[in-house]
Amino acid sequence: MPNIGPVELIIILVIALLILGPGKLPDVGAAIGKSIREFRKATNEVQDTVQGVTAPFTPPAQSAPVAPAPAVQEAAPVAPAPVVQEAAPVAPAPVEAAPVAPTPAPVPGTLSEPTAAAATLVAPVPTADIPTQPQA
User: Fold this and answer.
1) Nearest partner of 12 among 1, 31, 30, 25, judged by Cα
2) DSSP for the chain?
3) What is the domain partition of the chain in residue ranges?
4) pLDDT tens digit sequence for 13-63
């Protein structure tokens, strides 16, 4: 591979100056230099990663022996907590709907025809029949 000497380098710079002009030449040089730096940085990172993966494993350095912890005074014995038996869960009683009286059929020609509001009335469900579960 032929080497680029000082004469060839001057010829390349003169051609670049003619093509790009004196205003753009410093910007192009800075961009080329930045690209070369990023390329070198990337190749160094790849080399470091490959060397780290292929390097033999070195065990961690042994630390100084640790002094034993001071003796702890024993606390007075504590009585165990009493065992509380939980009450068996009580299943709620099934709630039965209150019977609804059938509405009489309207008689044609009379004023006693049922309205929509009267048809939707339902007797309330008594709450005294529903057992409550004890709170724990």
Assistant:
1) 25
2) -PPP-HHHHHHHHHHHHHHH-TTTHHHHHHHHHHHHHHHHHHHHHHHHHHHHHHSPP-PPPPPPPPPPPPPPPPPPP-PPPPPPPPPPPPPPPPPPPPP-PPPPPPPTTSS-PPPHHHHT--PPPPSTTSPPPPP-
3) 27-52
4) 899 889 988 889 889 889 999 999 999 999 999 998 888 777 666 666 666
CA dihedral 15, 20, 23, 28 (to 10 degrees): -90
pTM over 0.85: no
Residue 111, both tokens = 């004023």
